[in-house]
Amino acid sequence: MEDIVKITIWLPDQQALNKVLATAEVSLDCGAPRRESDGSYRVTLYARPPEAQKIFELPYRHEADENYGKVLAERQKEVSKIDRFKGGKVKPTGLGEKR
């Protein structure tokens, strides 16, 4: 998990996004691309470093977080390993509504 790069890329249109997705093996962030005030679209991608390098070679403005995978690994250590539902014997409680 430590070799993941988070890439924010600004694209002019759908054809540019298609070109990016055809160039490298990447994962898209959830949700629709965000429209910027200048008319471009901001898209967040996740890729391994060799695939990210392919994106960097394209003529689009981008920002990269090379340490994103390391941050994810550190955050994973914060997650509890305890089974708070005791294998399904304890019902979850909270503010959720049953429909």
Give a written overview of the molecule.
- The chain has 99 residues and is α+β, with helices and mostly antiparallel strands.
- It has one domain (5-77): 2-Layer Sandwich (Alpha-Beta Plaits), CATH 3.30.70.
- The protein is 28% helix and 22% strand.
- It contains three helices and five strands, in the order βαβββαβα.
- Strands 1, 2, 3, 4 and 5 form a five-stranded antiparallel beta sheet that branches.
- The chain is elongated.
- The model has no long low-confidence stretch (mean pLDDT 90).
Could you give a short description of this structure?
The chain is of the alpha+beta class and 99 residues long. It has helices at residues 14-23, 49-56, 68-77, and strands at 5-11, 27-28, 34-35, 41-47, 62-65.
Supply the key terms.
Alpha-Beta Plaits; elongated; 3 helices; 22% strand; single chain
CATH fold name = Alpha-Beta Plaits
- Counting structural domains, the number is 1
Number of strands: 5
Q: What ranges have pLDDT less than 50 throughout 5 or more consecutive residues? A: none
* Number of helices in the DSSP assignment: 3
Beta content comes to: 15-25%
Secondary-structure blueprint of this entry?
Layout (H helix, E strand, L loop, with lengths): L4 E7 L2 H10 L3 E2 L5 E2 L5 E7 L1 H8 L5 E4 L2 H10 L22
Antiparallel strand pairs: 1-4, 1-5, 2-4, 3-4
